Amino acid sequence: xxxxxxxxxxxxxxxxxxxxxxxxxxxxxxxxxxxxxxxxxxxxxxxxxxxxxxxxxxxxxxxxxxxxxxxxxxxxxxxxxxxxxxxxxxxxxxxxxxxxxxxxxxxxxxxxxxxxxxxxxxxxxxxxxxxxxxxxxxxxxxxxxxxxxxxxxxxxxxxxxxxxxxxxxxxxxxxxxxxxxxxxxxxxxxxxxxxxxxxxxxxxxxxxxxxxxxxxxxxxxxxxxxxxxxxxxxxxxxxxxxxxxxxxxxxxxxxxxxxxxxxxxxxxxxxxxxxxxxxxx
Length: 281
Prior knowledge:
Elements: H1 11-22, H2 26-33, H3 37-48, H4 51-68, H5 78-95, H6 104-113, H7 116-126, H8 135-147, H9 152-163, H10 168-175, H11 179-197, H12 211-220, H13 242-255, H14 264-280
Helix pairs in contact: 1-2, 3-4, 3-5, 4-5, 5-10, 8-13, 9-10, 9-11, 10-11
């Protein structure tokens, strides 16, 4: 289940369901919330980068929605109100955590490749039936890792606008800030991520696939390597630069099935290892 696009419900139908849910109709509440369960989990997972935390926070969000549905007055669409609750739950969680270092993935890769037992364990994991190393999912994994280097408010701005596709006005409302403040956070977050990517990822440029992706494909072995990623042009006749390379990555990140895809077990393992390392330093 990719994060983007988000499901939509007709405004009139939504208003009717909200009214019934506010009167205690559990079926109406389920009809309102269930279509958003997977997109909400995808958003939370990409924000907090640890599956167990994401599952726990999703339950927290759903409880808060149930408890607060009577306070919803329809000033914004239900999805914005819902993702507003999820966003502030994520921000509270992330503010208590350390920001990740830009080089966190590189450190983890060096530690893993220096330990034969860990390489053997990773090889066995990647050669299980049903596993496939999908480069697009790995791009989404890396994107969330880089996003974790940002202050949480900037991370949320990037995720809401660039990944989930909320408008600037909607995202500002979700974060509870003015549009100028939101635009500043979004611009700062984008600029920092673009800077961090420089030298770390050669996936979408003249050098082709990066070492980490090609190395993991080799470990996966025949029958587990997934589809190749063809060379990407930002637009016909347009020269590549840092900005449009970032947007090219985003196009992949939006559609990649990071949460439930065929590479899931490896990315869960990587996120767990990175979290432990970055939190314990």
